[in-house]
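User: quick one, fold this
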Amino acid sequence: MAYEDDDQSFEALFSQAESNSGSGFGVAGDEFTSMISSSSNKDFDRFVEEQENSAGKPKMLGCIPEVDLNIKEFRPIEKYFNEEPNQVYDDPSYYKKCLTGEGQSSQRLHSLLVKYLNCQDKKDKTVYRQQIVTAYWEFLRTLAPKMASTGIADCKRMAMRYGILLPSLATAEQKTMFAKAIDLNNTYEPVLYMDEWIKSIALGHMKPSTTDETPVKGANKGGAGAEQARIQQLKSKNSGKMQTSESLLNAKEAERQTLEHQVMSRMEELMVHETVMGLDPHKAPYTDLQRKMFSDITNLFRSLQKVDKELSNYLNEFKEAKDIEESLNAKSNEVVEEVSVGKEEILGEMNTLRQMHKMTCGRQGNQFPVFTREFFHCIDKFTGFRENVIRELQWIESIDPQCFCRIHKNIPHRIVPYTLLVPSYGDSGFCWEPFDRFNRLSSRGRICIPMYPRDLKTACLTAVADLRWQVAKEKASFDWMSDGLTGHYYQYLEEHKMKGDIKQFFIDDYILWMTKESMGTQKLDKEVRAIFWRYLPFPQELKEELKKRSLAYAELFQRDINRSMSDGY
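Assistant:
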């Protein structure tokens, strides 16, 4: 079909939609105008540039914060919604602008949406709904390469971010809620909407998600794009080395400071002498306790010597990594920023996002991708907006402090995973990657959370539980059925002859652990409680509180004491 014919048929479909008053279409205008090239929203990069030098906040790469091992907790959310609503959903041409310029994918989507909204037969409507799923994702694939453009229209971003294609499918209250949602990532956390995710992939700020499929080489990359991708890969590898060496350096500096304080304390005690009665002003010799301090001080000096040697090594490693970073930053500044991955890679990432969307819903779930009041039943506080999700992750970390930690040389490194918010009606979050296979020490994992679940807390818990399981499994490697958290849990299931998905058993038990056991309500089997108490420990304050409530917790608390006094802890 020729382009002119496409345009005419598309215009006819719009006319048909406008003539059906009961269809719920909010489309106005006589001509199918071209896509708006400018947007009223601030660009993420401009916002980040203004905030980058703020004290106590991580450096930002686009809308993604770099890993900072010095950050130990989530910052409190100061504001969940804007006071003034965005006017984007009040634009009567929203739907037209959204579909304009996207070729046959938008034409097919429009045609199916018209049929779906006007259909009265339930069976036919089900067929149209299934066809819309495929058509909508094809439409998003067309949009994806344009997400890196600063001139992308707001309506197109909102279609990818929230699934809002037709504002009239939402109630007035729902439109107001989305209009007041905070647009930019001013939380400085790696929690991203779909449009931000694709933009970060396109600009090379984040690697494409790992899949089992053979990766497609970036055939469309130009010289600058290829160089930019190479530099970014080197920076990513060096970042892990720098973060690890700095973390170890900080730990050794703290250890040195502690030892120095102990030396000073003993020296001060050593210099205290009582006056000898009758022989004033002569002082008494060292006491027996003070003489014992000679060996203590000698041992402390030996420890200081050992710590100083280790500190020197870590300092040299950190200096080397810092020099490499400065060199790479200088080279990066010489390369003009552009879409640094090929179109095939961006489309491949969209295929991955579609799989993530389906996984949040499950096989029997509602995979309809378009926002509509027919399926949306959340309130503002429990919709998967960025700020609400961070609030739930903060609550999870307050009960399971090690949920985002990886241990290296007995030092916990807190690394919050990339969190993708998908506009789905699913109920389950999950972990896609526990960490980058090329940088296990300081790379972020990837979890996915649905935005419109029945219970947002449970959706976040399932994602963190899956992350917990996969990290523990990767850490145990070939011994995952016999060692650590996964090994003990697997052996428990084997002993009780429980058949089924091991990870799903674990996720269900983790939810009970976090929601019931943390409150003192015993819902888990005794063996599982013991495993979780050891490998998924509550904060010490909560443990001390729980031991007062039940003998079961008191016994586990005593086991902690016994283990700490033995070599087998």
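User: anything notable?
Assistant: The mean pLDDT is 84.
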